[in-house]
Give the backbone structure.
Amino acid sequence: MSFNLPPLPYAIDALAPHISKETLEFHHGKHHATYVNNLNGFAEKDPSILGKSLEDLILSATGPVFNNAAQIWNHTFYWNSLSPQGGGEPTGAIATLIDASFGSFGAFKEQFSKTAIGHFASGWAWLVKDGDKVTIVDTHDAGCPLTQGKQPLLTCDVWEHAYYVDYRNARAKYVEAWWNLVNWDFANKNLASKSLG
Ligand code: MN
C-alpha cells in the first residue's frame, strides 16, 4: 500500500472568496500531491517506509523522508483547519482554554496573527495544546509540533504557495482571510481526542 492524497474535506471552490479555487487547485492538486508522490518514490527504494504511518515517520525520519511525510500530514491538517462554515469566535472547550491561556480571544488573535505574519520565509503557525495550556508555535519549512510533544489544534500555512495566487506578497491579507475560515469544530475535536494527553 502506498501513501495517498486525501481529498479536500469540501468542494474546491468552497473557500472562495477568501481562498480561491485556483489556489486550491495548485496547493492541494499540485503541492500536496507532490509531497505524496515524493514519499512514494522514497518508499520504492526503501519499502520499510510503507510499514510506517505518517506520524511514525514524522517522529523517526530525517531529511527528505521527514520533509515529505511532515508536509503531507501538515497539509491534511491545514485543510481540516479551514471550513466554509468557519470563522468567527471559538465556542466550547477551545474558547475556555484560549481565554485561560491568553486572557481573551482578542489577545490570542493578535498574537497568532503576529506569529503567522512575522514568520521569516516558509513555515507554519500553530495553535497547540502544551500541558494544561494552549500556546502558539511556529515551525520552519516542514516542521511539525508533534516532534516537540505538542498536540496540534489548528494551523495556518504561511508558505508563499498558500497565498501568492490570491494575495501576491501580502501575507497579512491572507492571514486575515484565514480568520474567516478557521474551523473551531476541528480544534475542539482535536482537544477531545487527547492523543498526546
Ligand atoms: Mn502548503
User: Anything to note?
Assistant: The CA atoms of residues 45 and 108 lie 45 Å apart. The chain has two domains: 21-80, 92-192. The two ends are 30 Å apart (CA to CA).
